[in-house]
Structure formats: structure tokens, C-alpha cells
């Protein structure tokens, strides 16, 4: 009897899942863009997420775009979805945030980031948190001291390479971006015990973000949720400590110091703000640095020119262009004088390298949105409630917008605006444009400054 009941329950559940999967397909068969839904429940998610090199679209998008066009329907992250590889539609989606579309990251991510994370909140709460974040960033920028912190941290990381035969650059880049962001947000230096504790918990937290969302003790997902709780209590401890010490402790001018007196944010929101900054400032920026160095070193053109340089010192190559730019900057500085904004603005070729690393590296390949109304755009119809994924990498690698799109060619940015445009959206766009974009670029530029001045690329 029990066996029959279990079988009937399983059958009912499967029927429900299959109906839930195919119903949107049947209802919107004619109106939604062409495409395929794949398997019940998982749909095409696994193929969509299959890893591929960052300067390629990957087999899934290549295949679907050639079969169905740049805009197609699919079933991803347990939801009927419209995937857009179309520049105009991507722009339209980003600009119509909260009017026609809304940020919508998968539910398990909410469990890890917390309900007050800026990536999760929508509507007025998002506006309030974001405006606070922008105020904080502009206050920090006006104080200026953080540029020195960035440079000091870069020098410290490179000094730790002395006497080493080999370093793993990705790890060094992570060390650098983590130390920069904990200093800026919490005022902590690498040798303080709290820094290590936060780093350990943060690494567990990051692993959980990309794991299967199963909350059973011991799974990476469950460990990440617990790690978030621990970081949260460490941050609360730091807040408590500063409150006790009062005014004299509040001279650090880090983010937390500026956040503490803000009445419009709850304690939970302040903690979330710290976590958002750590999350935003760590992995993405270290990836950008790794991409810049990878493309500088690995692009056949750069290598070829590097070889030419070895036999002919007058030939300009990627490294030497960057080197001469940085040598010029160094020449105009007094011994031990720190880099400033003017120096950063003068790093024009370096900024071209950074833009090109962002275009080819596609650190954030797509963002998550959902349609909050039935939307019609050109010939496409997006049903209300469907997930919508604007894919930035598809536009970055589209040869109709970028000549020789698959080639790393920093000179293409010469004379072009450095900010984002419809065809270049590494930091997103519209009301959710990344508030840390400038910090990420300055960090990378300052690190490259010391790297190209002090180190030489070894031939293959
Ligand atoms: C190369 C480095 C970075 C890349 C490629 C990047 C990319 C992005 C993208 C594409 C978004 C938009 C997400 C969406 O629309 O759903 C975003 C948002 C965000 N980023 Fe970044 N980011 C970088 C560095 C940073 C840094 C250094 C910080 C903080 C210190 C940061 C903090 C944030 C935050 C808080 C948001 C949410 C903004 C909102 O929803 O209003 N990011 N980032």
C-alpha cells in the first residue's frame, strides 16, 4: 500500500514538473521567439553553462544562434527564458530596468548573498542602497588616500615574489584584490587576524556561489551559507568594537566608518554592503588582471612582437608600448612619490589594454533579468514572467561591431571613448551599472604599472 502511495506521489510530481516545463512552451508556442526547451526541470542549463574559452561564444550559443537567430527561447535555471545576443535588445533590457524588466538572480543565490544584497533587492530598496553606495564611493574618491593604498598593496605583493622561481599569477592577483578591498572596506591590513578569518570564510562562500544549491550539512552550498553567517558576525564584531571605541577609532576613513553613522541603513544592510563590496571587488577584478596579463603574454601578435623586440629594440610591441608609457610616468615622478589620478589618466595605452581584456575576457558573460510585463521589441515577444538573459559576450565578440573580434588588439580602442557603449558593456548598464568599475580599472592599471616596470616577459 505504502509502495503504491509513494509511486502515485512520484508520478504526480513528475507530471507536475513536465507540465510546468512544457506549459509555457505550449501557451507561447507562436508568440515567443524560436528555440528549444530541452529536458524537463534542468532544460538546457547544463549545456548553457558548459565552460569554454572566454574569447569564444561556446558551443551552446554558437549552435543556438545559427539555428534560431540572435534571440531565442530556451529553458534555463528552471525557468522559461529568452536569451538575447542582440546588441539593441540587450541595451533595451538594461535601460528598462524596473519598467519592463527586473533583476532576477536564481533563488539559491539569494540564500547565499542574503536578502539585503544589492544584486538581490529591487525597486525602492535597490534605489536606496545604490544611492548610498555611490555616495560612499564618491566620498572615498574625493579623499584620495585609497590610490596610495592600492599602489602600496601592489608593491607589497610584488615584493613577496623576490627569490621565488615561479608564482601563480591568478593567486597573486586574488591576494592583491582581496587585500585592497578589505583595506578599503574594513580598514584591515593583511597581517591582522581578522583579515585571515574573513579570507577563509570568504573562499568557502565563493565556492558555494557556484555549487549545486542543496542545503544539507556538509554540501558546499550549506557551507557557504554558514560562511556568510560567520563573515556577518565578524563584521558585526568590528562594528561593535568601533562603536565602543567611539570617535577616536573612527579616523580610518574606510567604507565601514562612513557607513556606521548612516541612519537610513539597518545593521543587516550595512553587513550586506560589506559583503557585496568584497564579492564585487575580489574575483572579478583579479580575473580582469589575470586576463590582461594572459592576453598580453599569450596573444600570438604580442609574442611575435616580443620576439622582434629581442632582436630589434626599436620595434614597439605590447609590452614596450606599455613600458614606455609607464617609464614616462615614472620619469616625471620624484623618488617614492605615489601615483595619482593625473597619472592614471595618462595611462592611455594601459586603459586600451584593460578595455580589450574586458572585451575578450568576458568576465561577466550575462546578467539575470525577468520580464515584469509582456514585452514587444522589434519582431520579438517576451512573455511576462519569463527569464531574460542579455548575453554581453555575444556582442563583444560580434564581428559586425568589432573588426577581427576574436583577436586581442588593444589599439582598436585608440581615440574611442573609454566608457561603456551599446557594443561594450563589461560592467552592465542602466540603473544597475557596476559601481566598482573605476576601482577595478585603477587597480589593474596600477598593478600593471609596477609589473611592466619591474618584470620582463619570458619567451616560450
Ligand atoms: C572587472 C571587474 C568587475 C566587473 C567585470 C564587474 C561587472 C559587473 C556587472 C556586469 C554588474 C551588473 C550586474 C547586473 O546588472 O545584474 C555589476 C554590478 C555590481 N558590481 Fe561590479 N564588476 C567589477 C568590479 C566590481 C568592484 C571592484 C566592485 C566593488 C567594490 C563591484 C561591485 C558591484 C556591485 C555592488 C554591483 C551591483 C550594482 C547594482 O545592482 O546596482 N564590482 N558588476
UniProtKB/TrEMBL annotation:
Coiled-coil features, chain-numbered ranges: none
Gene Ontology biological process terms in this record: brassinosteroid biosynthetic process; brassinosteroid homeostasis; sterol metabolic process
Residues that hold heme according to the record: 434
Compartments (UniProt record): Membrane
Cofactor: heme
GO CC, any one term: membrane
Keywords associated with the record: Heme, Iron, Membrane, Metal-binding, Monooxygenase, Oxidoreductase, Transmembrane, Transmembrane helix
Record-given protein name: Cytochrome P450 724B1
Organism encoding this protein: Acorus gramineus
InterPro entries referenced in this protein's UniProt entry, alphabetically: Cyt_P450, Cyt_P450_CS, Cyt_P450_E_grp-I, Cyt_P450_sf
GO function terms (MF aspect): heme binding; iron ion binding; monooxygenase activity; oxidoreductase activity, acting on paired donors, with incorporation or reduction of molecular oxygen
Superkingdom, taxonomy of origin: Eukaryota
Family per record: Belongs to the cytochrome P450 family.
A Pfam family: p450
Annotated catalysed reactions: campesterol + reduced [NADPH--hemoprotein reductase] + O2 = (22S)-22-hydroxycampesterol + oxidized [NADPH--hemoprotein reductase] + H2O + H(+)
